[in-house]
Design a protein that fits this description.
Elements: H1 2-21, E1 25-39, E2 43-49, E3 54-59, E4 62-68, E5 74-80, E6 84-90, E7 97-102, H2 108-111, E8 118-120, E9 124-127, E10 144-147, E11 154-156, H3 158-194, H4 198-211, H5 216-280, H6 296-300, H7 318-334, H8 338-351, H9 356-369
Parallel strand pairs: 1-8, 1-9, 7-10
Antiparallel strand pairs: 1-2, 1-5, 3-4, 3-6, 6-7, 10-11
């Protein structure tokens, strides 16, 4: 009985010391920063310490502990002994970073002597995802912390670290490609806008918006381009209206000048015809004056053509009247004033009835008057 008690005591004592040896934990510390971009026609990267980032320790699907970064972006968390864990660092709107911590493999002779391991790993940089970039690599752990045999220290696994650096490098390269393409389109848009090529500027800003739809710069700049387009359109419309008004005024002046010229030509030719008629008229003697009971004025003055004429030509003989009407008609005909020419030929026909020349001229005028092309 005493021997059984002795064995039980020894077993409890060993279990006590073993349990005490496994009560250590790894104190892990790090720092978190926030990377942001101000994207215009060139990229401007900003990094600052991040207060309030969430740090969570998982074992499997179970949350074991969590903490927040302080004013300096620092955090410290205790990782229990004897297990494999996942540590995540997250912030609203940003990609989550994760790494593995393994506290397995610590020898008993190391763990029993008041073991208090610590490790400080490089800072985490969080940033918002950029449209068009594949972040699936961030589902993999970027770092693995594990016990290094031959001492009391924990350190990073080189293979996992190299893989994590490769993942970050590929993501950074993809981000820079998208950012540079976005900024280059904005720059081309700005250059076009400065040259007042508003349509081309709008085209480049639209390309930038398609690359990063949430960025404000191209959305603001495209409004300037659209305003420029509207302004140019208004100026073009005003210029077109002014040009049309000037052309109309020019045509009106030209038409007035043409009419004035035709009138002057007509008056000149009419005057010359009258002078020619007077110069060629035969000199009348007393013996040529017809015998009549009425005065000469009464015979020669009045309605010509047996009372049918609307013209009063005092003091002229029918032959002279015929010649004058024909001359006036010919002058109107030359200047394409066919209606006035016809009227004069009709008056000549009234003076000299059935005159073939006047009749022919009247028919020619009527034909031209009724032709649509002639105005």
């Amino acid at each position: 009985m005493e021997r059984i008690k002795s064995y039980l005591y020894c077993f409890l004592l060993i279990a006590f010391f073993n349990g005490k040896a496994q009560q250590w934990s790894l104190k892990l510390s790090s720092n978190v920063e926030l990377r942001s971009w101000i994207l215009t026609n060139k990229p401007d990267k900003k990094e600052k310490i991040l207060e309030g980032a969430k740090v969570t320790l998982y074992q499997g699907q179970n949350v074991l502990a969590n903490t927040m970064t302080d004013l300096n972006g620092d955090f410290v968390i205790d990782v229990p002994a004897g297990g494999d864990f996942i540590l995540t660092v997250s912030y609203e709107g940003c990609n989550t970073k994760r790494f593995v911590v393994s506290t397995n493999g610590v020898p008993e002779n190391v763990a029993k002597d008041n073991y208090k391991p610590t490790i400080s790993i490089g800072g985490f940089v969080l940033s918002k995802p950029i449209s068009g970039v594949d972040y699936i690599g961030l589902n993999e752990p970027l770092v693995k912390v594990e016990y290094k045999s031959g001492g009391q220290n924990f350190d990073k696994n080189d293979d996992v670290t190299r893989k994590g650096l490769s993942i970050i490098s590929n993501i950074t390269e993809a981000e820079n490609t998208v950012i540079n393409k976005f900024c280059n389109n904005n720059k081309l848009g700005d250059d076009a806008l400065n040259k007042k090529n508003c349509e081309l500027a709008k085209e480049y800003y639209n390309k930038a918006i398609k690359i990063l739809p949430d960025e404000k710069y191209p959305q603001e700049r495209i409004k300037l381009a659209e305003g420029c387009i509207e302004s140019k359109k208004a100026k073009q419309e005003d210029a077109a209206a002014q040009k049309a008004a000037e052309e109309k005024l020019s045509l009106e002046k030209a038409e007035k000048a043409r009419i004035a010229k035709e009138n002057a030509t007509f008056k000149k030719e009419t005057k010359a015809t009258k002078q020619s008629t007077v110069a060629t008229a035969p000199t009348k003697t007393k013996t040529e004056t017809p015998v009549t009971d009425k005065p000469v004025e009464a015979v020669t003055q009045g309605q010509i053509g047996g009372g049918r004429s609307k013209y009063k030509v005092p003091g002229k003989m029918p032959a002279d009247q015929y010649k004058e009407f024909m001359a006036n008609g010919n002058n109107y005909f030359k200047t394409k004033r066919y209606k006035e020419a016809k009227d004069n030929y009709l008056e000549a026909l009234k003076v000299k009835e059935k005159d073939p020349i006047a009749t022919s001229k009247i028919a020619e005028c009527e034909k031209l008057i009724n032709t649509p092309q002639v105005k």
